[in-house]
Design goal:
The complex is a heterodimer of chains A (about 425) and B (about 575). By secondary structure, chain A is of the alpha/beta class. Helices cover about 55% and strands about 10% of the residues of chain A. The chains are: A alpha/beta (about 425), B mainly alpha (about 575). At the A-B interface, helix 3, helix 7 and helix 13 of A face helix 1 and helix 12 of B.
């Protein structure tokens, strides 16, 4: 009796996995598949004169190494200084970052630039959304945006967003974010490609269907919209995704722009430990957001389903991590009938398809950024591919454990500026 | 929705038109190229003469005339193939084999009731099984197993007409070409004869046309190209000779995705999609430990005895050869040209013309090149000297039909350059092909609609002849068996009757075809023990004696032939050159 049930489970899970993988594959290729989506994703070819004013929030914690260059990049952006104000947000205990930021502010003041301030908060919780909420009331400009301390922003990003917001009459814009250091370590290529497919393709699908988990930076909001929403949820580990779903629930249209020329460049976490912690935080944040139930307030069933689908994914990933070794074991030990074995061939086929798409994605990514993908990089990616999936499953399981144990503290990701070293010269070929 | 557009509350600057902005030129010079025109092969802007390009997907819209032509083509296809479908032609051995295997899938969940030796890839009868399974009376829904299979062939034909029509129209830009192609595909006697039969070739052609159609969408999306790849893979595991069409597909894909932003994904995912079904087939063999012959023994003279093998069968099929197709006793003269010499000769000539036009200007004549090379690829397969059976000509029919359609269209267009004909533009364009069609339909020598019978009388052609009911002879044969032969009798027969005796009560579980009785160890050695005395009846299908002789090169059918020598004919029916018999072994 047990064996037929095991077979049934194997077949059902195989079919389910196949359907899910096919859908994910479709989302990964969404912009390449639809010319209209590809056209919409691109930045405008020409920019209108600066018209909107921007308040830039720069939350930073122990970012002594990179904060000065980040401030420098923002204030030197190709946008009139009088339409820009910058807030470096730190907690009171982070003297190092505050000091470095103030040094930079003094230096800029000597040049006549007075549009940067440090906002310090001394109450808890010490995390990014709380910092953002502290700074939000002090902003005065029409558009509020967030950059992370390690971000390499494109100098024309404000002109781009100014054009999009004015011409397309949108109040929320998510611009592209891209990890760049694809050759730093064994998992960096795959991590880079995750960002590439997420921002270049998948987010456009979510935006099109009005159910979008926003990214943590290079996201632009009309200030009054943020005030109306009451700022960010400071108990949520992925306040950005939560904010996206809240905005979607209001029926607000979100414009996603991913243009290889104007992406904000970032780096992969420097060590596997940091990577796992970052991924754990994201997975747990999605679990929190799922539990919170904002997604249930969305107007249409399709939007609710899409949001649920995204938020539940970490749980699915955790279960998948458990399922894979079990199913392999069952196939080997039980010597399943040929038809059932053929059924379990389907998800394997999809795994191959995913790998091929990632491989092509690597060439697309490097081509777009004036880099070169070597066959060695492809080989390394092939070797790293399965361990990487296992690491993701592990992080998801870890998040689940933390969630069950009621641990909701913020595990910070360290930044060393690897993307700056490697990509400073290799600016986008077309930029 | 509270949408308060941000610009309405933005600072005072009035909107500036893009062209007035001094900044703009600097921005554009930062490497941005306004390439919207190039990026998308959209419908071209309206011009007096519509632009047409296979490469860019600029196909003219179907229009009202096109819709009428398409509807007429579909209706014609349904009529020519549907009318008289269950009566003509005679049920064929191969039709019985495929239905027998579909039966095995539905009833026994295996690919064949006998040892499956990878002689054909299985997607064809998996499709048949998928068709039969949900029907109310399954194999007997349309009377018997082969009829039920033939009804699917009718549906497949009508779907194929649509695909063929659209493919020809898109490759030529002409409704006329599509209509002419559909005419031959629907009405040619050789088409009607083979396309009514339950043949893997018909299913293979459907997948192939679907795959070609997917590459001829207005926009080459990843989904359509991926779907096209899967359809091609299904064609390949329906009948392996689809491989001879693949080079043309690759070239068409190359031309269509050149310059596309998603070309990298397309050129990776298309072969992957095509390989996926083949991978499933290979995995099946691998899981059954039947991929490789034991000890890697590919010796064609001594086939490995312990188990069948996909690769060994493939190797054996590649190495077998037969007499020349073009010799006076080859199939070309004895069968194919007799069924429709006009279509085959015109099709061959049109193929050469299409190849000539296509090769002379590959850029502009992509459609001709594709259709010419598709037909050429399969012609090469038929002529290359391997084993060719009567119905192997089937995939050539749609290819030749498309070649004829495209060549006629082009020749008529060329004729307009003639100043005498230019005035009668529309008349020649519609009139000339219509005249040929009427002549073909009215001429007894063509056999399209009428023919001259053996007594010299002109009458409706066999395929539509109301009085001619060939399959009734086979029904009578079965009726006699049911009335006079006990169900536990050990019977040798041919596969065309297999479904009737195994799926309709009372079952005849010991009725096996001479092919299986001569080769399958279970039947040959366990049931009959290779002794003629163990046979009770021999049911002779048409030309079965000839098949037995052909299959007897190594003496494997001797014991069955001996049974015939020791038997009495107890029933027979003869009509024209068709002869059905039943023998009781003494």
């Amino acid at each position: 009796m047990i064996i037929p049930i095991v077979y049934l489970v194997l077949v059902l899970v195989s079919i389910l996995l196949t359907v899910q993988s096919t859908h994910v594959l479709y989302l990964m290729l969404y912009t390449w598949d639809r010319r209209d989506a590809e056209r919409k994703a691109r930045a405008p070819d020409t920019f209108i004169p600066p018209r909107l004013s921007f308040s830039v929030l720069l939350p930073a914690r122990h970012e002594e190494d990179v904060i000065q260059s980040t401030i420098e990049r923002v204030v030197r952006a190709d946008y009139p200084a009088e339409l820009l104000e910058v807030f470096v947000i730190c907690s009171q205990d982070d003297d190092g970052t505050v000091k470095k930021a103030e040094e930079k502010i003094d230096q800029l003041a000597r040049e006549g630039l007075h549009n940067v301030r440090v906002v310090v908060f001394d109450d808890g919780p010490i995390n990014k959304p709380h910092g953002l909420n502290t700074a939000l009331p002090q902003t005065a400009n029409k558009v509020v945006t967030i950059f992370d301390a390690e971000d390499d922003i494109h100098p024309k990003i404000f002109r781009l967003v100014n054009t999009v917001m004015v011409k397309e009459r949108v109040r929320v814009v998510q611009a592209g974010v891209q990890l760049m250091n694809y050759q730093s370590n064994w998992y960096s290529t795959l991590n880079v490609l995750e960002y590439f497919f997420w921002f270049k393709s998948r987010l456009h699908y979510h935006a099109h269907h009005g159910s979008i988990p926003l990214g943590g930076n290079t996201v632009f909001f009309a200030r009054e919209l943020l005030l109306r929403l009451g700022g960010w949820d400071d108990r949520n580990l992925t306040e950005d995704a939560d904010m996206g779903l809240r905005i979607s629930a209001m029926g607000e249209r979100v414009r996603v722009v991913y243009d290889d020329r104007y992406v904000t460049k970032e780096e992969t976490p420097p060590t596997l430990g940091h990577f796992i912690r970052q991924r754990t935080r994201w997975s747990q944040g999605f679990m929190q957001t799922l539990k919170k139930g904002t997604w249930k307030k969305m107007p249409t069933r399709k939007q609710r389903w899409l949001a649920f689908y995204v938020l539940v994914f970490p749980r699915g990933q955790a279960l998948l991590g458990l399922y894979l070794p079990i199913s392999l074991g069952m196939i080997l030990i039980l010597k399943v009938p040929v038809l059932i074995a053929l059924c379990s061939y389907l998800p394997v086929l999809l795994l191959v398809a995913h790998f091929l798409v990632q491989m092509v994605g690597l060439y697309e990514f490097t081509d777009a950024h004036g880099l070169e993908a070597s066959p060695k990089a492809v080989l390394r990616m092939a070797i790293a591919w399965f361990p990487f999936q296992m690491v993701l499953a592990y992080a998801a399981m870890r998040a689940m454990r933390r969630q069950l144990a009621g641990r909701h503290d913020w595990e910070k990701t360290q930044h060393v500026g690897a993307h700056r070293g490697s990509t400073e010269e290799a600016e986008s070929r077309v930029a | 929705m509270s949408h308060d557009p941000l610009p309405s509350r933005a600072p005072s600057n009035p909107p500036v038109a893009a062209g007035q902005n001094a900044d703009q030129s600097a921005d554009q010079s930062a490497g941005q190229t306004p390439d919207q025109d190039r990026a998308a092969p959209q419908r071209p802007p309206a011009r007096r003469r519509r632009r047409f390009s296979v490469e860019r997907g600029w196909f003219p819209p179907l229009g009202n005339a096109g819709k009428i032509a398409l509807a007429v083509s579909l209706l014609t296809g349904a009529l020519t193939h549907g009318y008289h479908l269950f009566r003509y032609p005679l049920y064929l051995t191969d039709e019985g084999i495929y239905m027998q295997r579909a039966w095995s899938l539905v009833r026994e969940t295996s690919l064949s009731p006998y040892t499956y030796d990878y002689d054909h890839a299985p997607a064809g009868w998996i499709t048949l099984a998928g068709w039969v399974f949900p029907l109310p009376q399954q194999f007997e829904t349309f009377g018997n197993a082969i009829n039920t299979g033939r009804f699917l062939m009718l549906l497949v034909h009508v779907a194929s007409v649509y695909l063929l029509f659209e493919i020809t129209r898109r490759l030529s830009g002409s409704v006329l070409a599509a209509t002419v192609a559909a005419f031959f595909f629907n009405v040619s006697p050789i088409a009607v004869y083979y396309q009514r039969q339950v043949l893997l070739d018909n299913l293979m052609m459907f997948w192939l046309l679907l795959s070609l159609f997917a590459l001829l969408r207005r926009e080459t999306t990843i989904r359509s190209v991926f779907g096209g790849g899967v359809a091609l893979g299904l064609a390949l595991i329906t009948k392996e000779n689809a491989i001879f069409f693949v080079p043309s597909f690759i070239y068409l894909l190359y031309r269509r995705i050149k310059g596309s932003p998603s070309h990298r994904f397309l050129r990776t995912l298309w072969p992957f999609a095509a390989a996926a079904p083949i991978g499933a087939y290979v995995t099946y063999a691998l899981l059954k430990n039947e991929l490789l012959p034991s000890s890697f023994d590919f010796d064609l003279n001594n086939p490995p005895a312990d188990h069948v093998s996909l690769l060994y069968t493939l190797w054996w099929q590649l190495n077998r050869s037969q007499g020349n197709l073009l010799s006076h006793d080859g199939l070309l003269y004895t069968s194919w040209l007799m069924r429709d010499s006009f279509m085959l000769i015109a099709g061959f000539a049109a193929m050469l013309l299409c190849l000539w036009w296509g090769l002379r200007d590959r850029q502009r004549n992509l459609g001709y090149l594709i259709i010419g090379t598709l037909a050429f690829g399969y012609t090469f397969y038929l002529l290359r000297g391997s084993v060719v059976l009567d119905f192997y000509v089937t995939p050539l029919i749609p290819m030749f039909a498309m070649c004829i359609g495209m060549a006629v269209d082009r020749l008529l267009k060329a004729s307009f350059k003639n100043r005498f004909l230019r005035g009668a533009h529309g008349l020649v364009r519609v009139g000339a092909p219509s005249l040929v069609a009427v002549v073909l339909l009215m001429s007894p020598s063509s056999g399209y609609l009428v023919h001259t019978n053996t007594e010299g009388v002109v009458q409706i052609a066999d395929q539509y002849q109301k009085k001619l009911n060939l399959t009734k002879m086979q029904h009578d044969q079965i009726a006699w068996v049911r009335k006079h032969v006990p169900s536990n009798a050990r019977i040798i027969m041919d596969d065309d009757l297999w479904g009737e005796l195994h799926d309709v009560r009372p079952f005849y579980p010991y009725a096996h075809s001479h092919w299986n009785a001569a080769s399958d160890p279970d039947v040959r050695d366990k049931l009959f023990k290779k002794r003629w005395q163990n046979i009770d009846y021999v049911i002779m299908s048409n030309k079965m004696r000839k098949s037995m002789a052909t299959n007897n090169a190594d003496g494997r059918e001797n014991w069955i032939l001996k049974a015939l020598q020791h038997s009495d004919r107890v029933w027979s029916r003869i009509q024209g050159n068709i002869r059905l018999e039943i023998y009781r072994v003494q």
